[in-house]
Amino acid sequence: MSDPRPQPSARVRAVGSSPVREILALTARPGVISFAGGLPAPELFDADALRAAFDHVLTTRPAQVLQYSTTEGDPDLRAALAARITGSGLPTAPDDLLVTTGSQQGLSLVAAALLDPGDVVLVEQPAYLAAIQCFTLAGARVVPVPGDADGIDPDALDAAVARERPSLLYLVPTFSNPTGRTLPGERRRRVAEIAARHGLWIVEDDPYGELRYRGEPLPPIAAQPAAADRTILLGSLSKIMAPGMRLGWLRSPAGPRRSLVVAKQAADLHTSTVVQAAAATYLAKTGLDDHVARIRAAYAPRRDAMLAALPRVLPEGSVWSDPDGGMFVWVRLPGDVDTGELLHRALEHDVAFVPGYPFYVDSPDRATLRLSFTTYGPAEIEEGLDRLGRALRG
Predict the structure, then answer these.
(1) Where are the beta strands (DSSP E) in 206-320?
(2) Which residues contact 147 (CB under 8 A, 6 or more apart)?
């Protein structure tokens, strides 16, 4: 007899769960040094100032901050975010912004507002896993575009656009997840021109841009004249304030903005009123500049410790990225190593990482892996990599 129980949708069954989240569950036991999650260092959370911000809004205007609110977001928070984005070189008005429940929701809203089932989305290869999941769940066909140490290859992108006729290009051009790569300025210009010439949306995801440890900031693709009317820029406070706040934003040109608002109304009506109000108060009374500077000062030596240890612990022939910022180092081991199998040996040595294969749309390179350097201090990073070295040796 057939099973009479109702089943989940075919789209959800096709996507499945996140291997990264499953790995994080495996590494939660005490004693494991985990380079798997892109987790901010909890000791750097500005808990006292955030507590004061929540106390302030709950004391001075509880009836307002505990009530329903507008879909677009808290006006004070949008004004503060717009000023911060403008200060980075991208003129932005509060009305250009939609506050989201983390930047991941921004991806879901883009998929709902801009994609129909069967549409093609181009991504760099390897790509952010949750974006692949999001677009696949929306019924899109996700097509990878190759690149190199500098990110997506504009010539390959141009050819893919002409061949696939996509609706949307998704990129993390600054300190990419998973590779840590940064797209140079000339490639950003070419990407913008390709999108303008062929008529497609660009979704530019920038959760890591403020975590720069060397070099000068690059203007976002959204600042390119050719891309101004077709780029949706996603941002987040998770990496520079606290991920538990679940606050992100998207900056949209006028064309799709109303559709994005409608998509958010259907998703959750609005992001938490009290959390938005507390964040706005924090930005007004405390500000983020000093806090971000403290984060950078803590993360830079952690990155340096990881990069210094890798030549000692990895086998000859290994290659890895050398990121100017962000949270990740991307490694490729020599030969036919399967890092999915290596992970099981690593866990026996109480160390963890993320195998690289989930970040590929197709033809995964199973000898790759992602290491995050932000969660631990330099001494623990060195110890964790020594454990990884022992796992690699046998």
Answers:
(1) 231-236, 248-251, 319-320
(2) 124, 125, 153, 156, 181
Question: Do 376 and 302 form a contact (C-beta atoms < 8 A)?
Answer: yes
Q: Decide: 292 and 38 in contact? Cβ < 8 Å.
A: no
Are 293 and 314 spatial neighbours (Cβ–Cβ below 8 Å)? no
Q: Report the C-alpha gap between 23 and 196 in whole angstroms.
A: 40
Per-residue pLDDT of the chain (394 residues; tens, 9 = 90+): 566 777 777 777 666 666 666 666 766 778 999 999 889 999 999 999 999 999 999 999 999 999 999 999 999 999 999 999 999 999 999 999 999 999 999 999 999 999 999 999 999 999 999 999 999 999 999 999 999 999 999 999 999 999 999 999 999 999 999 999 999 999 999 999 999 999 999 999 999 999 999 999 999 999 999 999 999 999 999 999 999 999 999 999 999 999 999 999 999 999 999 999 999 999 999 999 999 999 999 999 999 999 999 999 999 999 999 999 999 999 999 999 999 999 999 999 999 999 999 999 999 999 999 999 999 999 999 999 999 999 999 7
pTM value? 0.94
Q: Which residues, in sequence order, are bridge partners of residue 159?
A: none
DSSP-derived 3-state class of residue 320? strand
- Helix (H/G/I), strand (E/B), else coil: 48: helix
Q: Check residue 272 and give left, alpha or beta (phi > 0: left; psi -120 to 50: alpha).
A: beta
What is the DSSP annotation of 66-109?
Answer: TS---SS--HHHHHHHHHHHHHTT----GGGEEEESHHHHHHHH
Whole-angstrom CA distances from 162 to 126, 170, 191 are 21, 16, 13
What stretch of H or E contains 267? helix 254-268
Q: Alpha-carbon torsion 181, 389, 39, 139, what sign?
A: positive
Q: How far is residue 115's CA from residue 264's CA, in Å, rounded to a whole number? A: 15
Amino acid at 120: V
